[in-house]
Amino acid sequence: MSYSITDKCIGCSICKKVCPTDAIEGKNDKIHTIEPKLCIDCGACGKICPQESVKDSFHNTCIRIRFRSRWEKPVINREKCMSCNICIEACPVDCLKLSYTKDNKDIRGYPFLENERACIACCFCAVECPVDAIEMVAPAK
Amino acid sequence: MDKGYMGKVLWVDLSSGKIDEETIPDSVYVKYLSGLGLGAYLLYSRIPADADPLGPENILGFLSGLLTGTGSLFTGRWMVVGKSPLTGGWGDANCGGNFSPSIKRCGYDGIFFKGTSKKPVYLFVDKGKAEIKDASRFWGMDTVETEKSLIKEADCKKPRVACIGPAGEKLSLISGICNDLGRMAARSGLGAVMGSKKLKAVVLGGAMRIKSHSPDKIKKLSRTCNTATKDQSQFIKGIMSARIGTLMRVLPTQMAMDGKMYISMLDKWGTASMNQISIEIGDSPIKNWKGSNKDFGTEKSELLNPDVFTDSVFVKYHCYSCPLGCGGICSIKGKYSETHKPEYETVLAFGGLCMNNDPDSIFYLNEVLNRAGMDTISAGGTVAFALECYEKGIITKKETGGLELTWGNSSAIVALVEKIVKREGIGDLLADGSKVAAQKIGNNSMQYAIQAGGQELAMHDGRNDPGFALHNCVEPTPGRHTIGSQLYYEMFQLWKKIKGLPDVKFIYSKNSKYLPDREKTIAAAACSKYMNVMNGAGCCLFGAFLGANRLPLFDWLNAATGWEKTPDQYMEIGERIQTLRQMFNIKHGIEPKDYKMSDRALGRPPLEEGANKGRSIDIEKMIGDYWEQFGWDTKTGKPTDACLKRLGI
After folding, report:
1. Residue range A120-135: mean pLDDT, rounded
2. Between the CA of residue B526 and those of A54, B330, B498, B540, B564, what are the distances in Å?
3. pLDDT digits (tens, 9 = 90+) for B531-571
């Protein structure tokens, strides 16, 4: 199972840049391809493709979300969070970190979105969280 | 099909530079799980009987657990396996942190190294490619410097590093492998195997998905398990813990321990919660196992009370997938500004065992040893051995380089450890553990090297709980405290899941603990089998303390794999792994009876005062009965043909 690129592709390479596992190959202006062994189904290519030329693992066409700032972002519910690091390890672009300060009275660290721009809205953090402490929320327009 | 495991391992030949993938058939996972079991399966047939543990024929494997990354809890431990240079037989160690899931995210259940490199190297795996890289400029660095430098250099999003420090490089037989800036797969001396291969580190990127058969079912089980972990009452102050220990000592009866109580202590203090209680009840060995709580009473141990360690924590430390977080990062004074919170084992190895109650020295030694990549249990046991040799005049100031190695002399203990990690002067003699040192020193000093099969014993006294003594002697990796004991059996509550196992009375007479009856060996064998399943799954011992009905280990395994195995069938897998590890030792010329631990720690002669006064253990009977539980020969400990046939080995 893997994402794939159709012949609508114009070879702009923007998908190649956003892919966290370097699974996409192709020269500029040529149709790109996805290496199934490296694809992790994160969907970043599908959201970014201006031609909507990406199909997901179930062969559905991915819908473009034009402005990356409007892609969903993880919001962490500290009441539910176990501080177990599963979300941090699930993130393929390493944009979640553990928050703490040396003078913090609550010595438990919690995950937070350290690098908002790097987040590709793959939802893996939310999907893998065993206690549903992460909700993916699209920023308000 | 998605089954929780990745179905592949990576082989790296450091002599030729060749790297290959091997597909592992499903049938192997069905029989051995992943993690420790898969490691035992592969190494048993592939390491030749006469292989030098520090030579090219030895194989060193890094494995993740079957449940790691599936959404299950307490399942973030990775295993390192190989032939141990410390014991000459099967070696394994495991560790938490965040390294384990990265093995699977690189697409493998395990990464195995054979051969030896001519120059220092490290392995880098990311995006489907594995590469052996030059590590010359990292050689000589401590584990913290190495990890930080490699993370900076790695061309990937989220590098995770396991590495050795100078101790492993210098082939210290008590060296381990470190990750997450101070977590350690410390036992069995496998850091030296890594050093002998000139393998400085393993650096893993990897972002592959870990897919299970029923992820929603796993999540549901995890939520229930998390509730059991969190449902805790507020606890007493650390300083009160010693009083509880004293009370437990003076009462003639004992209450069966429910691990939930211990879990709440772990949550608040980590393993340091036991610092004083253990001394008071006779669980902690004192003065190289010849002393007692009378020599290191509450007035002395108070400086090591649990609050001392917790108060310096500025953030709790959770290993991957752990809801508990027994660890912590501490601010410390002196040369280093931070250290992982010293574990109970470290505090007592350099505390009561050496009669030292200076907490600053223990914080410092914790960091020194983590950075050197050396096992704190073995290092503490070896220092205690040296202190006793000095007391008896077997070694003098001439050999120690002027150090006055008197009991509790914290500055001399610190200076000695600094020599050991650098192999300087007397440190060179002691860097391979107490048994090797005693063999070199001679002069009847072996009686002061308290070990089993060459490995120093952890800080749990078999004279208080004979279960610890039994597991020290019968495990294929001797001298281990993380497999079983009477206390662990009470907390595991396996009789609630497994048919035919004896349950534990709520209140029982303390004297009954010391009867070497059959029920105890049945319980001990069950602990061994269960912990092999745990180590195949990558599960933490502290999860097991929740009790088998609160830690849904077997249900998680079924949900991850799609199997429909019963708890009894999983216990048979545990039995198979234990038997195969025993077979590894037989193949490599180990006589199982030679793993019997030192007489002093068995109460031969018994202590004359303190919590364990007058107690000695009929270990020979217990060992024979334990072997019988597995269908091994009761005289030699060798698995019988019938046993091998029954288990399909």
Report:
1. 98
2. 53, 37, 9, 17, 21
3. 999 999 999 999 999 999 999 999 999 999 999 999 999 99
pLDDT digits (tens, 9 = 90+) for A57-98: 999 999 999 999 999 999 999 999 999 999 999 999 999 999
Q: Which of B128, B226, B325 sits opposite A131 (nearest CB)?
A: B226
Residues of B in contact with A35 (CB under 8 A): 128
Cα B124–Cα B165–Cα B189 angle in degrees, nearest 5: 100
Distance between CA atoms of residues B76 and B102, nearest Å = 10
Residues of B with CB under 8 A from a CB of A: 69, 71-73, 76, 98, 101-102, 105, 127-128, 157-158, 207-209, 218-219, 222-223, 226, 313-316, 318-323, 325, 328, 331
Q: B140-144, B145-149, B243-247, B409-413: which range is least confident on average? A: B243-247
- Quickly list DSSP for B434-500: HHHHHHHH-TTGGGG--EETTEEP-S--TTT-HHHHHHHHHSSS-S-SSS--HHHHHHH-GGGTSTT
pTM, two decimals, is 0.97
| Strand bridging mode B129-134 / B121-126 | antiparallel
Q: Which residues in chain B touch residue A101, judged by CB atoms under 8 angstroms apart?
A: 314
SS3 B265: helix
Q: Is B502 left (phi over 0), alpha (psi -120 to 50) or beta?
A: beta
Evaluate if residue B179 carries a pLDDT over 80.
yes
pLDDT digits (tens, 9 = 90+) for B573-610: 999 999 999 999 999 999 999 999 999 999 999 999 99
**Structure tokens that stand for B355 in this block:** 């009669």
| B235: confidence class by pLDDT, cuts 50, 70, 90 | low
At B162, the amino acid letter reads A
- Dihedrals phi, psi of B327, to nearest 5 degrees: -90, 180
B168/B2 Cα distance (integer angstroms): 38
- The pLDDT tens digits of the residues spanning B612-632 come to 999 999 999 999 999 999 999
Asked if B222 lies within 8 A of A93 by C-beta distance, the reply is no
Decide if A130 and B98 are in contact by the 8 Å CB cutoff.
no
Distance to chain B for A88, nearest Cα, Å: 9
**A1 confidence band (pLDDT: 50, 70, 90):** confident
Residues pairing with B161 in the sheet:
B203
Residue of B nearest to A22 (CA): B127
- How far is the C-alpha of A15 from the C-alpha of A53, rounded, in Å? 10
By C-alpha distance, the chain B residue nearest A126 is B71
Q: Residues A66, A134, A109, A107: what is their CA dihedral angle, to the nearest 10 degrees?
A: 140
- pLDDT over threshold 70, residue B39: yes
Which residue from A92, A128, A130 is facing B73, i.e. has the nearest CB? A130
Tell me whether residues A40 and B315 touch, CB distance under 8 A: no
Q: How far is CA B581 from CA A48, B175, B474, B488, B640, in A?
A: 52, 21, 11, 22, 14
Q: In this complex, do A40 and B102 lie within 8 Å of one another by their Cβ atoms?
A: no
Cα within 13 Å of Cα(B160), Cβ side: 25
* pLDDT at position B272 over 70: yes
Contact A104 B325 (CB under 8 A): no
The closest alpha carbon to A44, from A15, A13, A10, A7, belongs to A15
Q: How would you classify the pairing of strands B129-134 and B90-95?
A: unpaired
Residue among B252, B359, B253 nearest B312 (CA):
B359
Q: How many CB pairs under 8 A join A and B?
A: 86
Residues of chain B in contact with residue A102, where contact means CB-CB under 8 angstroms, are: 314, 331
* H or E element in which residue B420 lies: helix B410-422
d(CA B5, CA B37): 13
Contact A91 B325 (CB under 8 A): no
Taking CA atoms, B602 is separated from B469, B516, B598, in Å, by: 7, 13, 7
A40 vs B207: CB contact, 8 Å cut-off? yes
